Amino acid sequence: MTSLLEQCRAVSHSDACLTWVSDEFLLQEQIAPWSEIPLWIPEAMRELKGFMFLDCRKALTAGLQLRPVGQTIQDVLSWYKTHRPQENLKAGLDFDKERHLLDEWHEIQK
Which of 11, 42, 60, 102 has the fewest other C-beta atoms within 10 Å? Predict the structure, then answer.
C-alpha cells in the first residue's frame, strides 16, 4: 500500500502527507471499509481474508501483459481530468471528515 500511495503522490505531483492509522481507530470512528477508504479491509473482517488475492497465472499464460502501476495511475488521472473534472469522487472520505479523523488521531498520539 505504501508503494502504491507513494506512486500516486509522485505521478500526481501531490504534496500529500501520508498518515498511517490503526484499523481499530478507524473502526471505532465508524469508517466504512472499502468505500470510505478504498482498498482498506480491516484484519478483523476475517470473512474477507484473501478478498484481493487471486491466482492470475492462467491469464498471464494466455498473454496478459501488466503495465507499470505508475502508467495506470497517470492514465486514470488523465481520464478523470478530461472526462470528470467537475464531478465529486464517489469513494473516499470527504475532506471535513478526513480532517477531523486526522486531528483526532494526532491528538491520541500525543
Answer: 60
Domain positions in the chain: 2-109
Q: How many CA atoms lie within 13 A of 87 on its CB side?
A: 9
Residue 66 makes CB contacts below 8 A (sequence gap 6+) with: 60
Give the residue among 25, 24, 18 at the shortest CA–CA distance from 1.
18
Rounded to whole angstroms, the Cα distance separating 49 from 82 reads: 36
Residue range 31-41, pLDDT digits in tens: 988 889 988 88
pLDDT tens, 70-87? 999 999 999 998 998 788
